[in-house]
Amino acid sequence: MKKEFKTESKRLLDMMINSIYTHKEIFLRELISNASDAMDKMYYKELTDDSLTFNKENYYIKVTPNKEKRILKVSDTGIGMTKEELENNLGTIAKSGSLAFKSENEMKDGHDIIGQFGVGFYSAFMVSEDVTVITRPFGSDKGYRWHSEGAEGYTIKECDKDSFGTDIILKIKENTEDENYDEYLEEYKLKSIIKKYSDFISYPIKMDITESKLKEGAEDEYEDVTEEKVINSMVPIWKKNKSQLTDEDYENFYAEKHYGFDKPLKHIHIKADGLVRYNSILFIPENIPFDYYTKEYEKGLELYSNGVLIMNKCQDLLPDYFSFVKGMVDSEDLSLNISREMLQHDRQLKVIAKNIKKKIKSQLEKMLKNERDKYEKFYKSFGRQIKYGVYEEFGANKDFLKDLLMYYSSKEEKMVTLDEYVSRMAEDQKYIYYASGESKERIEKLPQTEMVSEKGYEILYFTDEIDEFTIKMLMSYKDKEFKSVSSGDLGIDSEENENSSEGKDKESKELFEKMKNILDGKVKEVRASKRLKNHLVCLANDGEVSIEMEKILKSMPNNQEVQADKILEINVNHEVFNSLKDAYEKDNDKLKLYTDLLYNQALLIEGLPIDDPIEFSNNISKIMK
Ligand code: ADP
Ligand code: MG
């Protein structure tokens, strides 16, 4: 009886078969990688089960093309699959999350994102008319034959198989106008694909190679000789010398391992020979994984014990703030039988984790110093995570991470580090100034920045929700404290301004008092502004909670009550101030109207919602009349 693939699988399969892959040849990489995984499982079983004996010769992959029958067979001596496993592993393809991702990111640059789906096996359909899987699971004397012609479905039957392991049998498609499938039956092509993508697979990949050879004893007579050869070098890439490896080797490894669908921005190859011996290859991805900023994302590195994979995602090897790092660690000093709980307390592992953390940081610093563009690319993707790292754990890691921070600068009109900012501060400048807002464009127009900019001071733009929280945790950088351009006291001495506004402040004390009463608790104070030059009005704030923070906290479900202490600042040198005074002296209703308008204007400038838009609009009409 034919069974249908689960719906999502069907859609995905269709999509994959019909999509234009620049690299159809990667199907072989996927099949070999699965074969290798299956043998890892077997190998692990034999190593850890005393009743089994281990024989290295038993482990190999064999690739066999048959041109006449248009068949390509990939066999392994791995653990095989039970009937249930066949159903579960080859009957369902991807989870919906990945599917959603696909539709949003229409296979942009031909990067193969198959790996992201966990649908490696299905890539076989890109080159096959039909696929047959003959498998016998370890510990069973029965085998199964799975067969499918594509999206319609599949059948499973019992069958005989001599030994455990799996044969994947592909019926290779006929050539089309734009696609040459014949080459997947050619020895030389298969050999080069294996070399390219699967060279470091730790089991031998064998193939019968036919070569023309000089006949024994003859001088110019040749004959075809077929010999079984091992195609791959089998040395895992992490055990090779760095000098032997090219960027492309690392990129292939990254793709093979499905660490990401992008190309890595940077690789770090560690060969540690100290107290704890280990090899590690780490990658900093270029793009954000589609689920990175969601709960589903799991950090971690692959953990090997002397070449045998013991854990897929070892979380203890990476701190949260470097959770974007992908890669693996192989150590001879770890036991194979180690459990998750034991790992958490493992001293060796702690040493490795600490080491890795430092290496990643120094690599990032190096990138910042020598490859600025690359660093900025990285920061655009993962800077938020670094900022979060400064903030979390009550700032425990702030000193470790602070030099990796970057913000957009008003003066440089690009991203700058805190060190760069501080190093060019004016002599009389006391603080590191920042302004918060939704976007660069919005901040640029904030009236609060006038005074600071006029002074010639640089302002850092905070556009990330986390920014102000990060800085609150950091408190200062190189003994310079941070100061918001909206804060009550800017710490700028400007005499003319001070005198005149102070004078007017006293003079207008009663007016401001009255306005404050009109606003009825909405602001803590109304006062003459020292920071406004051309603009009429703005909000400033004192105290712990800034206006930006209020916005953010209010948008969270449980924090409705947080309020920033708002101060309404009026530019007393502005023409409109005279109208205000006039109203105060002559017309109480008018003063009320003006006050309301000013307050709402200030809210709008901050990007805060106004209490009653209709009233606001009516008030404006009233004035226009
Ligand atoms: P992934 O390898 O990412 O899990 P695949 O689509 O490549 O996804 O394979 C799906 C599953 O099918 C594997 O996880 C494995 O359980 C099973 N499988 C595939 N090929 C083999 C094989 N040669 N031997 C044993 N199991 C296999
Ligand atoms: Mg796979």
Strand order of the largest sheet: 5-4-3-6-2-1-7-8
Unreliable stretches (pLDDT < 50, length at least 5) are 94-118
Number of domains: 4
Look up the CATH topology of the largest domain. Answer: Heat Shock Protein 90
CATH class of the largest domain: Alpha Beta
Can you give the mean pLDDT? 87
In total, the number of strands is: 22
CATH architecture call of the largest domain: 2-Layer Sandwich
Instruction: Report strand %.
Output: 15-25%
Would you tell me the structural class of the helices and strands?
alpha+beta
What's the story with the biggest beta sheet? 8 strands, mixed
Percentage of helical residues? 25-40%
Principal-axes shape call: elongated
Number of helices: 21
Distance between the termini: 82 Å
Bound molecules: adenosine-5'-diphosphate, magnesium ion
Name given to the CATH homologous superfamily of the largest domain:
Histidine kinase-like ATPase, C-terminal domain
Please tell me how large the radius of gyration is. Answer: 34 Å
